[in-house]
Amino acid sequence: MPRQSDLRYTFEHRADGHTLILTDRVGGLGTIGTRSDCPVLYQPMGGGDSMEPALNRFHYTEQVRTARQVQRDYTFIHPYYNQQHTATGDQDLNNQHQDYERFDYPGRYKRDIAGKPFTKTRLAALRNDAKLAHVAGDDARLQPGLAFDLNEHPREDFNDRWRTIAIRHEGKQHSSLLEEAVGSDSGTFYEMKASAIRWTSDWKAPLRDKPCIDGPQIATVVGPPEEEIYCDEWGRVKVQFPQTISGQHHLTAGQGMHHTTTVYQLQASERVVFQSPGGSLTLDAQGIHLNGVAITLHGPVTSTTPGAGQALTLQLQPEAGQTCVEKNR
């Protein structure tokens, strides 16, 4: 849900505690220093031990990615409206061709107010690696989400503010050396590898596929406690699956589901078929009644209905816990 809603998070570590930060734009996460002073040196030809941490590799790449995202979805409230929304990356394409289109269905939204930002977010997620800088060095101050100012690069346009989006630290220390490590030929090793974007660019996390539901599932019909049969304003029954955390069969814990012409009582079980892999569209396929017999017959019951010159007799004879039905005309 945070990915689809364009939310991302990071941690701010301090001596007095740690803070979880949620934001919808990476530009609000700050820098590794102050807002005006966060320099990181670039020293590709450094020999021996450097006087201060620096980056020794800086590789900038641009990739061809999706230029236009088109999505559709379906809702039973407006079945003839395809809910199509389109997002284009005009400001970020530069020399890339604009006809690289991607079409997705379902878009996982039911209203236009959600479809427009969802489509825009999905396009940004597909283009999150269109322009990346890959760096390496020993400056451990770099953190995901925080920006830094690159200095002393031979290309002046690269001496700009960059924002780290991913980082990997690698260190080696031979434990067998212990206190004899001073005179050893192999000492400790540390290297940092990271990916960064320009500070003017926004970054969206890649969208993952929604977990799929394989095959039919069993669910329990739920509703208000004072009702025996309940449907909502669209004729849907509410069901609750066994894996629901609350475990209480009440209306607020249920999920709306379209049903067939059969009317099910509350607390009855249903065999639910998912019409979409993500479970957004469900349809009951078969009812499994858990209620017992409404009345107990203590003896034979015969009912005769005359008409058209003949009689129709219905006789119920419960014997040994079974009910037999006989019809005589």
From TrEMBL:
InterPro entries: T6SS_Vgr_RhsGE, Vgr_OB-fold_dom_sf. It holds the Pfam family Phage_GPD. It comes from the Bacteria. This is Gp5/Type VI secretion system Vgr protein OB-fold domain-containing protein.
